[in-house]
Amino acid sequence: MPEGRGEDLFEQRVEKAKRLRERGIDPYPPRYKPTHTAEAARALYTQHELAGDAHPSDIISIAGRIVALRPMGKAAFIGLLDGGDKLQVYLKKDELGDAYDLLKELDFGDFIGAKGKLFKTRTGEITLEAAEFTLLAKALRPLPEKWHGLQDVEKRLRQRYLDLISNEEARKIFVIRSKTVSAIRRFFEQRGYLEVETPVLVGVAAGASAKPFITHHNALDRDLYLRIALELSLKRLVVGGMNRVYEIGRVFRNEGLSFKHNPEYTLLESYEAYADYQDIMSMVEQMVESVALEVLGTTKVTHDGKEIDLKAPWKRLDLRQAIKDTSGVDFEDYPDGHELANKLREMKIEVDRGDSRGRLIDKLLSTYVEPTLIQPTFLVDYPLDMSPLAKKKQDNPRFVERFEGFAAGMELANAFTELNDPIDQMERLSEQERLSKLSADGETDRLDEDFVTALEHGMPPTGGLGMGIDRLVMLLTGQDTIREVILFPQLRGK
After folding, report:
1. Taking a C-beta distance cutoff of 8 angstroms, is the pair 75, 127 a contact?
2. What is the structure's pLDDT at 151?
3. In a designed cystine with 64, which of 82, 135, 186, 281 is the match (CB 3.0 to 4.6 A)?
4. CATH T-level topology, domain 166-314+375-485
5. CA 355, 358, 364: angle at the middle one, nearest 5?
6. Contact present, 308 and 376 (Cβ < 8 Å)
7. Can you tell me the distance from the alpha carbon of 170 to that of 159, in angstroms, rounded to the nearest whole number?
8. Closest Cα partner for 277 from 464, 99, 460?
9. Which residues in the chain land under pLDDT 70?
């Protein structure tokens, strides 16, 4: 219960609810059936107006939360928030009789329903003149004083419901997020992909280099992990003859918090038989362009004051050359991980005990290259050390057929021509298993022997993709922190 003035307001509202019950009025009736939303009510009046009918006779009902209340003696105006839309309601004592006296029991935040005819005020605002109104839910706690926008960022994130009530921009972000996911689904369906669901609880946390969350299954009496990727389960389905599959699902990585990291996030992964990383690269740029046009009506977005054009085709850069150009380091001059680690220390880059050569190259990438990639860009052809699940390049087996997509200085997508040689796969994952015992943070891939067994039954040449939905929404909405695009982000303890 809030303290001070907040506690007093709470008690006052509890007392109002009690008085209503004493008068035989349920402050929380079980149902109400509005005939129109606020938006539909306005559209109805406009339709009549265009037809030359300035006084429509339609009797309609609407419902919403009180966000404005202006009593004026024998009349009052109430502003109702219906989802993300508002409509004004006009109440007159002459019209409502004794029911008008219930107005004094209403507060900001209460839900009411109102029934009557639409008209336009002298100021031109479409308004419903209530012939009757019904209390639908008594709010015992008040809305934030500045209901039009909470200023306390921590409170907005911890009490997202208040943010959605008071912050129209927040609501728009999550509408865009929902539309983005729907648009992605339509894109894949049009290309003949099948959406599937794979296990969240897994015996081996594999498919990415990340530390997992661990849990215990009581009935089986065994430890399980929350998945860190969707990859290995989806590739099993390709082995099984499902040639085009994708999943949009939550994955969990036991890592720190940052402006672009949340321990649980939404990941899109897709796999297409008889495609390679060049095919997937074209698909990604087409998908992002298509989604932006469908959701925003444009391919141009603004992020951190910079205009970014998501229109295909995107720029392509060789990873090795990009790192060399920005850092001055050609990692091929350092085939030994210890030598490369010493070079990074000279450059004042933090190196942890047990960092693999691939991890060190990734630190060069994230430190020097990633911040420069503002316009959509694909970095292509990664060293084998960084990519235990990708197919080697035929002309240079020290590199693999892999790309990552970047925009606004952050990674959006990771994809490669999938490794389908089970012998090579077993050797690489066994090496990752060895490195995991040396790694300080546990961020290496793991050996899933059942997956290798699946590969031994034969998997066709396949192109795979992983894309973070949260970061894509950050890009589309111009947000600079992942917390603003996740309804319930993880936060540090109070």
Report:
1. no
2. 61
3. 82
4. BirA Bifunctional Protein; domain 2 (3.30.930)
5. 90
6. yes
7. 12
8. 464
9. 1-6, 145-151, 436-445, 494
pLDDT digits (tens, 9 = 90+) for 356-367: 899 999 999 999
Distance CA 410, CA 468 (A): 11
Query: Which residues are CB-contacts of 298 (< 8 A; sequence separation ≥ 6)?
Result: 292
Measured between alpha carbons, how far is 284 from 286 in angstroms, rounded to an integer? 5
**Fold match flag (5-143 vs 166-314+375-485):** no
Two tokens, residue 219: 């009935």
Neighbours of 64 (CB within 10 A): 24
Residue 5 confidence (pLDDT): 57
The two tokens of residue 399 are 């590199």
Domain extents in the chain: 5-143, 166-314+375-485
Task: Report the candidate in 467, 470, 463 with the shortest Cα–Cα distance to residue 487.
Answer: 470
pLDDT confidence of residue 448: 87
Do the Cβ atoms of 92 and 117 come closer than 8 Å? Answer: no
Please calculate the CA angle 33-38-41 and round it to the nearest 5 degrees.
90
Tell me how far apart the alpha carbons of residues 400 and 310 are, in angstroms, rounded to a whole number: 26
Evaluate the omega torsion of the peptide bond into residue 142 and state whether it is cis, within 30 degrees of 0.
no
In CATH, what number does 5-143 get?
A: 2.40.50.140
Is the distance from CB of 258 to CB of 223 less than 8 angstroms? no
Entry pTM: 0.90
Give the number of C-alpha atoms closer than 13 A to the C-alpha of residue 264, restricted to the C-beta side.
Answer: 12
The beta strand positions in 94-179, using DSSP E, are 111-120, 126-137
CA distance 159 to 141: 13
Structure token pair of residue 349: 């880059």
The C-alpha angle 454, 203, 435, rounded to 5 degrees, equals: 85
3-state secondary structure of 82: strand
Q: Write out the two tokens for 305.
A: 């004051």
Strand partners, 77: 70, 90
Please count the other Cβ atoms lying within 10 Å of the Cβ belonging to residue 427.
12
C-alpha–C-alpha distance, residues 76 and 90, integer Å? 6
Structure tokens belonging to residue 45:
């009046």
What is the pLDDT, as a whole number, of residue 173? Answer: 97
Phi-psi bin for 240: left (phi > 0), alpha (psi -120 to 50), beta?
Answer: alpha
